[in-house]
Amino acid sequence: MSRASLPFLLVTAFLFAVGMSIVFPLLPALVGQYVSGREQATVVGLLAALYAFLSFFSGPVLGAVSDAYGRRPVLLLSLVGTAAGNLLFGLGGSLGLLFLGRFLESVMSGGMGALMAYVADTTDEADRGAVFARIGATVGAGMILGPAIGGALAHFGLGVPMFAAAAIALLNALWGAFALPESLPPRERHLEFSAGHLNPFTHLRAALAHPPVRRLVTVSMLFTLPLPLLQIALPILAQGSLHWSVAQVGTLFMVAGTCDIVGQGLVLPRLLTRFGERRVALSGLVMGAAGLLLLAGLSAWPSAGLLYGAVVVFSLGEGMFTAAFNTLLSLAIPAGEQGRVQGGAQALGELTQVVGPLAGGGLYARFGGAGTFSAGAGLAVLALMLLAGRTTPAASRVAPGPGLS
């Protein structure tokens, strides 16, 4: 990977994350200009869910486009489209424009699969995990800073944060146009691209036809399904068990994001070098399950120390698993299919962000915090058992040493 490519990819990943999270503090006020009461909450929920829903469809398609025409044009198009979506969202003027802007930005976020494929194209097996870890840390930073940036710039007007995000995305696209080389040579591209390739389910079906890929993606979905519990159930649990204020609940998310950044950016590259991707992924699943079990115990033993400790353990485990999984997946993907398979994996991850909150809310309403987080821990244990059951061909190449079979 060239020296110019990695900074560009990190900034691009940061912008994708900020693009999703910068609107969180703005949505109620923006929507409140057009509707109020219960209808306001419904529209806010629809706008929030729209991002994950459309990313599910666009990820495999843009990934397949990058397999056919190269990663560079897809990444640049995604940035320009993201800027246009942010601009429309900032201009507002009607609910229709808000949805149109969010629609465009959501579709362009599918370029994250092409970004992952770019990394797979330009890194060797020994260094890939460390690069994925840095990207993961950057995404974590974007998710933390996005709402803070949105809240701070909103003092100058509700549209200002979106205008700023649009300007930065355009500048990044301009930077990439001059500094980003293509990573996929023409001889390695799939040039048989037709209208049928615009169907995302075609790419998902083809990607999941490969047993190692199917197994890894299943492991990831089992583990990521409980992640929305931290967004939905954790605030309710903290307020109900410890009587915390909104500001105190906010510190939990800051702690989680900080652990994600520190773990993936500083600690994880050393762990990957020493233990290999498969061991690190397994350890991450163990820590994730342990963190969820600790949260399940909060109802019986309410304690701020237990709550913070559980969030730290889970967040570090989630970061360890995610970076290691990305590397294992990239090595399991057949040659020439990095784009669509990476896009498909990103899309299925977005699907869990739609299903997870719905399931988590229903579980919490019926079984409370103990039952909800215990169910999440059960899914993490299933993921652990599936990954530990058999060594994938990719894992055997990147995790040398005893005890990996």
TrEMBL record:
Entries under Pfam families matching the protein: MFS_1
Q: Which spans are transmembrane here?
A: 41-62, 74-93, 99-119, 131-154, 160-180, 216-238, 244-268, 280-301, 370-388
Domain Major facilitator superfamily (MFS) profile positions: 5-395
Predominant subcellular localization, coarse grouping: membrane
Where does the UniProt annotation locate this protein? Membrane
User: Per its record, what are the GO molecular function terms?
Assistant: transmembrane transporter activity
Q: Which domain of life is it from?
A: Bacteria
InterPro entries hit by this protein: MFS, MFS_dom, MFS_trans_sf, Sugar_transporter_CS, Tet-R_TetA/multi-R_MdtG-like
Report if keyword Nucleotide-binding is assigned.
Answer: no
Asked if the record carries the keyword GTP-binding, the reply is no
List where this protein forms a coiled coil.
none
Which GO cellular component term is one of those annotated? membrane
Q: How does it sit in the membrane?
A: Multi-pass membrane protein
Q: Which UniProt keywords apply?
A: Membrane, Plasmid, Transmembrane, Transmembrane helix, Transport
PANTHER family reported for this sequence: MAJOR FACILITATOR SUPERFAMILY (MFS) PROFILE DOMAIN-CONTAINING PROTEIN, MAJOR FACILITATOR SUPERFAMILY DOMAIN-CONTAINING PROTEIN 10
The similarity comment for this entry is: Belongs to the major facilitator superfamily. TCR/Tet family.
Q: What is this protein called?
A: Tetracycline resistance MFS efflux pump
